[in-house]
Each structure stands twice: as C-alpha cells, then as structure tokens.
Amino acid sequence: MGDRLDAAFAAARRSWFLPEGARVRAAFDGPIQIGHEQTCSQPRTVRDMLALLDPQLGDSVLDVGSGSGWTTALLAELVGPTGRVRGVELEPALVTWGQTNLAKGEWPWASIEAARPGVVGIPEHGPYDRILVSAEAREIPRDLLGSLADDARLVVPVRGTMTLVDRRGGVDEVTEHGSYRFVPLR
Residue 185: inside a domain, yes or no? Predict the structure, then answer.
C-alpha cells in the first residue's frame, strides 16, 4: 500500500486543496485552516487513515467531511477509474470550493456534494466498499454502518481514537488505532 499511497499523494497535491495564502505551507505536517472552522488534515494523519481504509481499485467509496476535496482526490487516485468516490460536506461554501479543487485533477469518477440536514453520508448511493470519515464522532455512526457493504471497511475517529470497522461475512470487527484530533462530526 505504501507505493500506492506515495503515488496518490504525488498525483493529488495538497497545495491544490489549500487557500491561496496557505499553499506555501502545503508540506507542513500539520492541519491547516481552510475556513468555516474546518482544516485540511495533517498529511501523516491522512496517510494513516488511508492505510487503515485500504481502498482497492474499483471500490465504491464514501468520503464524509470532504472539506477542501483533498481526501476525495486521494481516494479517487487509489480506486482508479473503475471505482467511484462520493465526497459529502456539510458546509455549503466548502462544497463549492471542494468541487473546484477536485476539478484541478482528472478524476471524473469522483464528486463532492452537499450533505443533507440530519443525514450522515449519502445512503441512497450505498452500499459502499469503503467509508472514510474526517471528523470526530461521539460513537460509530449507525447511519454509516447501514451504508457499509459486506467485506468492507469504515475508518472514523471516535472520541479521539482512530477506529476501524472491518466487516467480513456480515460480522463487524472493531479495532482502535491510536489517538488523533479532528473537528467534530456535525
């Protein structure tokens, strides 16, 4: 997975997904403010999350809290043109900006849309092979579990702990993978 991640990070440059004044800090291994009380996550954290998620070519992926569109682009690179990535974002201005940023690359199999009030994710396009959540939940979101296919994975920070739900044969195995800080899932 390491080589695939390196290639994805090279193809979806973080600088494309940062506010103009912050682009000089693209190599900074820390979160960068993108407005609306949101951040573009630390590259090391994003890499850790993507390694846990382990997206495969052809996967259908949901990216919850797509923000600037960076993780949506990285996921698009990892699943390739036979896959499908749907980003969802609650903040309307970030939806528009994320769509603009995503258009800087060649990922027509990836999109970003506005979240609907009271709905976590985009259940009508599920089930998903992989779900990535880039905001901290209080518990594993049941709505997302309902959108997860069999033989699938969900990565979500829960109360400061990176949590992996690995569904195999209809059984969910939940494991924890270190402490991280994220903006809250709304």
Answer: no
